[in-house]
């Protein structure tokens, strides 16, 4: 059972919290190897950057090391694969998505003394770089290591929320680790559902409910997973909970039909 609380996650690096989360979902996650690989990469980075005196130049060298020498890259071919959210797989394949690659950048960057922070931007995870002598922070897309100007971020926001969306300070606020882990958990669940790995997806839902008990949308998703696992009585109960809690949600009407269909189906108890 995943027993870390918000205060525990705040005291861990994001990648460490992610590894704990990965292991809680899939016991086969190679945490020991991942920790050794992180230590190896950190040592290699320290040696690579040893002769750089200027911190900003040193940071640029770090980015080149990460994306060009080590060849970490965003996975364009299988973006939604669960391999992109399990840290051991990301380290092994050197491919990931913004939150997984960004967690590695954050971990190594902080260990190397760079002023980097994570941002849960609405469209994707970002790295914020805050140099003391500069009035405004810079933002990096961890998917490719490129800097992203604020007008581009505004365009991304419009693409997601519509033409009236405005870029506000809240969108660029540094995120705490519990928030990021919660978002990571949702991405992981979606990936596992796409792959029809329902037993692992169920673990994601159960973990999410330890952080936000009685979340009707999480319980609705759990009902769907139970239905795929032929646990129809439990699925019906979860669907009914969502209908009772969110009667005005557009999905409630469809779920009522689903519950009626389940009532006509023979019950399989597991």
UniProtKB/TrEMBL annotation:
Residues 34-185 form the Protein SirB1 N-terminal domain. Gene3D superfamilies: Tetratricopeptide repeat domain. It comes from Vibrio albus. This is Protein SirB1 N-terminal domain-containing protein. Belongs to the UPF0162 family. It comes from the Bacteria. InterPro entries: SirB1_N (IPR032698), TPR-like_helical_dom_sf (IPR011990). SUPFAM superfamilies: TPR-like (SSF48452).
């Amino acid at each position: 059972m995943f027993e870390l609380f918000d205060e525990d996650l705040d005291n861990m690096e994001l990648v460490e919290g992610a590894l704990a989360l990965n292991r809680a979902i899939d016991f086969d996650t190679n945490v020991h190897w991942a920790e050794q690989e992180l230590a190896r990469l950190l040592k290699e980075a320290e040696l690579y950057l040893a002769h750089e005196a200027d911190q900003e130049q040193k940071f640029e060298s770090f980015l080149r090391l990460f994306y060009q020498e080590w060849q970490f890259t965003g996975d364009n071919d299988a973006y939604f694969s669960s391999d992109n959210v399990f840290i051991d797989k990301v380290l092994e394949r050197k491919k990931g998505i913004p939150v997984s690659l960004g967690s590695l950048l954050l971990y190594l960057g902080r260990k190397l003394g760079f002023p980097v922070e994570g941002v849960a931007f609405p469209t994707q995870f970002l790295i914020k770089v805050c140099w003391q002598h500069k009035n405004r922070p810079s933002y990096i897309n961890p998917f490719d290591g490129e800097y992203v100007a604020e007008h581009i971020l505004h365009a991304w926001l419009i693409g997601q929320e519509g033409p009236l969306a405005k870029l506000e300070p809240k969108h660029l606020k540094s995120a705490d680790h519990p928030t990021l882990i919660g978002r990571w958990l949702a991405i992981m669940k979606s990936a596992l559902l796409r792959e029809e790995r329902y037993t692992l997806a169920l673990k994601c839902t159960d973990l999410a409910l330890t952080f936000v008990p009685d979340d009707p949308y999480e319980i609705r998703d759990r009902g769907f997973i139970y239905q795929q696992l032929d646990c129809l009585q439990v699925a019906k109960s979860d669907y009914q909970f969502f209908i009772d809690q969110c009667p005005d949600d557009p999905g409630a009407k469809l779920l009522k039909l689903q519950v009626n269909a389940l009532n006509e189906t023979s019950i399989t108890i597991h």
